[in-house]
Amino acid sequence: MRDERVGQVSETPKNTLQYRVDGPEDAPVLVVGPSLGTTWHMWDRQIPELAGTWRVLRFDLPGHGGAPAQPAHSVAELGDRLIATLDGLGIQRFGYAGCSIGGAIGADLALRHPHRLASLALVASSARFGTADEYRQRGVVVRTNGMDPMARSAPERWFTAAYAAAQPAIVEWAVQMVRTTDPACYIAACEALAAFDIRADLGRIAVPTLALVGAEDRVTGPGEARTLVAGIPGAGLAVVPGASHLAPVEQPAAVTDLLVHHFSTAWQETPPPPPAPSATTTPSGSSEPPAPFPAPGPVATPAPFANPSPFPAPGPVATPTPFPNPAAFPAPGPFGTPTPLASPGPIAPPPAPTEPLGLLAPPTPEPPAESAAPGEPSEPAEPGSRAEPTAPAEPGNPAEPPAPAEPTAPSPHPDPYELGLRIRRDVLGGAPVDAETARADAFGAGFDELATRHAWGQVWSRDGLDRRTRAAVALAALASGGHLDDLAAHTRAALRAGLTPAEIEEVLIQTGVYCGLPAASAAVRVAGAVIREETAPRG
């Protein structure tokens, strides 16, 4: 770690994140997270104002901006690395703003570590990013072609056409930023987004939240932001005119004003009590409440900052491409002065139901069985004798209640259908499986269920082989049997599982040696057509 006048740049131990800190040491901490393919420099133009009130910590995703290439395969894993980074700095409570996957990390922290967050801003983010197939397809393209296709298409995804035409230097900065990202870490982040889905959990987010989105964002647009606001109690919504996905870059003044307003007015001073399973524990096992940070308020004005772009070289870590000096570019045309936005306020809670919820009626008791007349005790049976059946009781005389039935133990082998359907959709893709299941009529539905339950739920779910190996075995078996339609589907599955086109070709060559050249030749033609289609860069 080394101190700089304009900030501190970290060295990065394993299982933590590369970070930079700006702002007064005694100020409340505000963490800001990047979008996929970007670096902490995407927040350069927010830092001068934010760092006047907060101690701002920016971080890079693994393999981005010169950070160590240690892939993280889930949003929760990225959140764990961020928490480990903050723990190492002694930071317990903080505000958080994140863009796109950075927003997903913030939402995950709000669900798993609510006592750590004082306030939350989700910028260009979503509870569910597109479809799993879209992000796994990105992984296929990068694994085959490298980062260049993603780099060339980034400006179209990130900026409006007018801004891209007016700011060619910033567009080139964006392209180079993506091009220098580690491919394996980018693919892992795509897998993390493919698996991310918190739509059912939004109601559990209790942190004061702002959903901020560019009006022209085509990646995670206003519709996704409204879904967040509808699901998170009390969340506010801000739509920024003239901005696409990277709103902090395209409309920096508007985004800065919205963030300052949100974190100045919606900072939760007292953390809610942490849930029992998530309580912080000392090495001895005793529970310890987190130390609260002070609420943001007036702080001493730090000495004037040096121009934050370009930053000083970050010492032992590789120097990421700095954000171009905004003074070098003309005002961005009609988008230079964004339309003033209304302050994001809390959404009114839904009205209480006008009628009380009905209670379940208690079950109607069974009529009691009739017993022998009172005062006529039965004689005990002699040892070794067999008890005679009890005669029916006379009308009007209640019988003894029967002994309660013993509870049935849960089955040690639960039905694997749901597990099988999930694995089948993960391997073959959600849309193809859903279409095939929908086509199964009364005649084929039973077979479809059989295959899902046994092939996918009991074989593909086994731990003995990893997903890549099973994909290779499936290709060899389908090629040897001449099942070319299924071979095409499993070629796509193999690409999504991480096999490269060269590895698929090797599988089919080996199959030809042992199962016959004609079968392998037909398989090569089918697999080749699928590979060309799947690995072609898409806009």
TrEMBL record:
Compositionally skewed regions (Polar residues) per UniProt: 9-18
Recorded hits in Gene3D superfamilies, A to Z, give: AhpD-like, alpha/beta hydrolase
What UniProt keywords apply to this chain's record, in alphabetical order?
A: Hydrolase
Q: Where is the AB hydrolase-1 domain?
A: 28-129
Q: Name one GO molecular function term.
A: peroxiredoxin activity
Signal peptide bounds: none
SUPFAM superfamilies given for it? Answer: AhpD-like (SSF69118), alpha/beta-Hydrolases (SSF53474)
Q: Where is the composition biased (Pro residues)?
A: 289-354, 398-414
Question: Which portions of the chain have biased composition (kind: Low complexity)?
Answer: 278-288, 369-397
Annotated region (Disordered) at: 1-20, 266-418
| Domain Carboxymuconolactone decarboxylase-like: residue ranges | 447-527
Superkingdom is Bacteria
Q: What is its EC number?
A: 3.1.1.24
State the Pfam families in the record: Abhydrolase_1, CMD
What sort of enzyme, by top EC class, is this? hydrolase
Return the InterPro entries for the record. 4CMD/NDH-1_regulator, AB_hydrolase_1, AB_hydrolase_fold, AhpD-like, CMD-like
PANTHER family documented for this protein? 4-CARBOXYMUCONOLACTONE DECARBOXYLASE FAMILY PROTEIN, CARBOXYMUCONOLACTONE DECARBOXYLASE-LIKE DOMAIN-CONTAINING PROTEIN
Protein name (Swiss-Prot/TrEMBL): 3-oxoadipate enol-lactonase 2
Per the UniProt entry, what species is this protein from, by scientific name? Streptomyces hundungensis
Give the encoding gene's name: catD_1
